[in-house]
Automatic annotation (TrEMBL):
It comes from Actinia tenebrosa. The keyword Protein biosynthesis does not apply. It comes from the Eukaryota. PANTHER family: BRISC AND BRCA1-A COMPLEX MEMBER 1 (PTHR15660:SF1). This is BRISC and BRCA1-A complex member 1.
Length: 305
C-alpha cells in the first residue's frame, strides 16, 4: 500500500501543470494567451497580474525555512546567462521585432527585471555568470542596475558549436566559490540578505549533466534557508529532434523541496516577460510555484471609462 501511495504521489507531481513542459499557443499577431481550459484570455497594457499567495506554513520545506521571517531583505541575485550558439536563433515569434534572437529577448527581459528589482529595493545586488562550454564568473556583485544592464548589452552568444552536454558541476562550483551565506543562530531573526540564482538556459540539444558531486554541491547550498535556485528554460518547440522535455525534467528534479521556480518558454515573448515578472517576487515572500495563481483584472481607471 505504501509503494502504491508513493507511486500515486509521483504521478500527481508529473501531471502537475506548473512542472510540465508546455507548448506555447500564443498567436503573436493577436497577442492572446490561452488559458488551461483552451479559451483565450486577453492581454495588454490595460491589464495587470494579481498574485494569489498561500499563507499555509506547511507549504514551506523544513523547520528552519518555516522559521525564517518573510521580510524584504536585500537579495544577492546571480544571473546565469547562456551564451551558447542556440541563443543566436530567432526562435521567438514577434510581429514587432521578428529578426531578434532569443538572447536579445532574454536580455531585454532581464534588464527590465533588474531595473524593477532595484526600484523595489536599491540594496539588491546582481552578479553575472556566463554559460559557455562551462560556467564562469563574468561580473561580480554590483548594486547599480545601469552597470549590470550595460554588461548584458555587451555580452554576445558564441558562434562556435558547444559540447553536446553541459556539466552543471562547473556552475554549482562557481556559485559556491564566490558566495557567503548568512549563518544565524536564531532563524527567526531577519537575515541580512539572501542569495538567489536565476539560471537562464537556452539549449534544446545540449543536456545538462548532474553528477553525484554536482548534486551534492547543490544540496549543500539548498540546506541554507537563505539560498534559492530558479530556472527559466528557453527552448525550441519540443519534437523528436531535440531534448527539450528531458532537459526540463532534469531541472525539475533538482528542486526536490519545491523551493525554487522552474519556468519554461518556447516561442511566446509574452510568456517570457510574464515569467520574468513572476521572479520579481521576493523568495522569502512568495508561495511555492504550485500554489501561484495569476488572474488578469482591469485597473480601476479602465473600469470607469
Amino acid at each position: 500500500m505504501q509503494e502504491s501511495a508513493r507511486g500515486d504521489e509521483k504521478k500527481q507531481a508529473q501531471d502537475h501543470p506548473t512542472r510540465r513542459l508546455l507548448v506555447d499557443t500564443t498567436d503573436p499577431t493577436t497577442d492572446e494567451r490561452h488559458s488551461g481550459d483552451g479559451q483565450a484570455s486577453p492581454s495588454g497594457e490595460n491589464m495587470v497580474d494579481e498574485v494569489s499567495l498561500s499563507s499555509d506554513d506547511s507549504d514551506l520545506s523544513g523547520y528552519t525555512r518555516r522559521c525564517v521571517p518573510r521580510v524584504n531583505c536585500p537579495e544577492k541575485i546571480i544571473l546565469c546567462v547562456d551564451l551558447s550558439p542556440e541563443m543566436n536563433e530567432s526562435s521567438f515569434q514577434s510581429r514587432t521585432a521578428p529578426e531578434r534572437t532569443a538572447y536579445q529577448f532574454v536580455r531585454k527581459a532581464s534588464q527590465i527585471f533588474i531595473k524593477n528589482k532595484s526600484y523595489l529595493n536599491p540594496d539588491h545586488e546582481f552578479g553575472i555568470i556566463v554559460l559557455e562550454d562551462e560556467a564562469s564568473w563574468y561580473q561580480q556583485f554590483e548594486s547599480n542596475p545601469d552597470t549590470i544592464c550595460t554588461v548584458l548589452e555587451h555580452l554576445k552568444p558564441n558562434e562556435q558549436e558547444t559540447e553536446d552536454v553541459f556539466d552543471m558541476e562547473t556552475l554549482f562550483q562557481a556559485i559556491q566559490s564566490r558566495i557567503s551565506l548568512p549563518d544565524l543562530e536564531d532563524p527567526s531573526l531577519p537575515p541580512p540578505y539572501v542569495v538567489r540564482v536565476i539560471l537562464m538556459y537556452g539549449r534544446s540539444l545540449c543536456t545538462p549533466v548532474i553528477s553525484t558531486q554536482a548534486h551534492q554541491t547543490l544540496h549543500n547550498l539548498l540546506q541554507s534557508p537563505y539560498f534559492f535556485f530558479d530556472v527559466i528554460y528557453v527552448h525550441q518547440l519540443p519534437s523528436e529532434n531535440n531534448k527539450c522535455e528531458s532537459i526540463y525534467d532534469t531541472f525539475c528534479e533538482l528542486d526536490e523541496d519545491e523551493v525554487g521556480y522552474m519556468l519554461e518558454v518556447s516561442r511566446s515573448t509574452t510568456r517570457l516577460f510574464d515569467h520574468m515578472a513572476t521572479l520579481l517576487a521576493h523568495p522569502l515572500q512568495r508561495p511555492k510555484q504550485r500554489d501561484t495563481s495569476y488572474v488578469l483584472t482591469p485597473r480601476e481607471s479602465d473600469e470607469n471609462q
